[in-house]
Each structure stands twice: as structure tokens, then as C-alpha cells.
Fold these 2 entries.
Entry 1:
Amino acid sequence: MTRQSSYVRKMAQKGQIHFSDHALERMGERKVLINDTVQAILEGEEIEVQDIGSESDVRVLFQEATDTIPRFYVVVATSYPEVEVVSVCEFKEEAWDWLGKIMARRRKK
């Protein structure tokens, strides 16, 4: 687990996570509850860390916390001091592979 995901999880445990309007809209469209989103952050697998250009603009992707193939992932910006859920996305079969425990982006050939 990266230090960024550790930081995000600590903030989630404290209830100090902000949800962007975009994330709330996507959650509504995809029927993903706030509790499920927080659960993904706390217990789901970290599937990717995206360094957007500076340490203050890093995004961490957490997959749904489930024992089966996850349906969605959560995109969290780690901008200190505020942690923000910026989007909730569904896994698309053409872009992701299930590796038995974790989803991984399909590599382009």
C-alpha cells in the first residue's frame, strides 16, 4: 500500500472525506451509496496511483470492497489537507481484466 492510499484511508476513518458534485452525480447514476464508496476506500484494493504532475495532485483508485468481481472503483484526490472523492466509475470489460483479487487495466497491444 502506498503512503497516499494510507493517508486517504486515515482521513476516511476520521470521516474527513469530501465528495465533489461530479462524484455525487456519478454515484447517483450508478446507484453507488456513500457508505459503499467509503467502504471501498477503507477496505477495497488499491488498484492504481496516478501522479498528475505534482505531489499535491495525486489520485488513488480503490476498487469496490467485495469478495467477487467488483462493479465500481473510486477515484480519490489526495490534495493535502483535503481528501476528495472526484469520481466513481464502473469497470468496463473492454478496459479492465479481473486477476482473481484485483482489477487491472488491460494493456494496449
Note: The chain has a mean pLDDT of 92.
Entry 2:
Amino acid sequence: MKKRLVCCFVILCMVLSGCAGKQGEAQKPLEQEEARQEAGASAAPSQAEEPEPSAEPEPTPEEDAFSGRWQAVESPQCYMDIARGDGDGYTLEIVWSGASRGDIIWQAVGSYDEIWGGVAYTGAKYEDVVKEDGTIDRIPVPEREEVTGMVYLEDDGTLRWIDDFDHMGDDMRFEKE
């Protein structure tokens, strides 16, 4: 019991000394300013320092390497639209057109992953079913309530698609239109 009391007291002292140290640091700039004013130095208003521009400006959606429509080289019935949102976010819509049964669509959102060098996404898979009257119903594919994957660029500028569940993108290359 005595050990616990001593430990609590030591921890309390450490916490309080840490807080006092922070308070002292916050007072230093104020004390320096007062010393300047007492010395009679004319304190010109300091201009706010502008942040240095980064070496690489953030690309606009039009300049972004991923944004745009991508057509599959091996399968003309497959394409994807990628749009850049705010920050490093993207929206993806991948469409696999099927003449009689309707289209299969993957709709997803993701962000650029610096480690993997691509846009990692999560979303859902849908099937467009054409009804007899010609209207289209977009129906979620139940076994694919959440899909994940990634799109990335190769050195030659082609886009590759990794579909974690269906592997529809295996060995497919996409070129920007």
C-alpha cells in the first residue's frame, strides 16, 4: 500500500513538473517581447512568414495521372472512370458492358496509397438489369456487398486493376482515352 502511494505521488510530481515546464515555455516569447519594448527598440510589425512552396505542386484534377476515362486494351467492353475529389480522394466507376444481360458496375471510393503507389479503394458491385419495358434497375450483387482493390500506373503509363475478390482485372491493361 505504501509503495502504491509513493508511486502515485511520484507520478503526480512528474505530471505537475511537466505542466509547469510547458507554461514556462509559453511565457518566454511574452517576456522577450516585453524586454524589446523596454529597451526602446522599435518593434516593426512582423510579417507573417509564408510557407515555402512545395517542390511539387498538388496536381489539379485535370493534371492528375489517374483521373479520366480508361479503356481496357484486351476487352473493349470494359472501361473505368476515375475522378479526383478533395485531397487525395478518388471516385472510381468500373463498367463491364454486357449486351443482353446488362452491365456489371463497380462503384468505389479510395485514396492514393504512397506505399503501394496506387489508389486503394473500397466500394460495392452492382448489376444493371434491363427490364422488358427497357428501363434499367441497378441491383447490388449480394455476395459482393463490399469490394476492395487497387489501381496503379506502370512505368509505360498503362493502368492496372487489382480486384481482390473477383480478379476481373487480372492481366488487364487500361489506356487513357
Note: Residues 5-10, 19-30, 41-46, 53-57 have pLDDT under 50 and may be disordered.
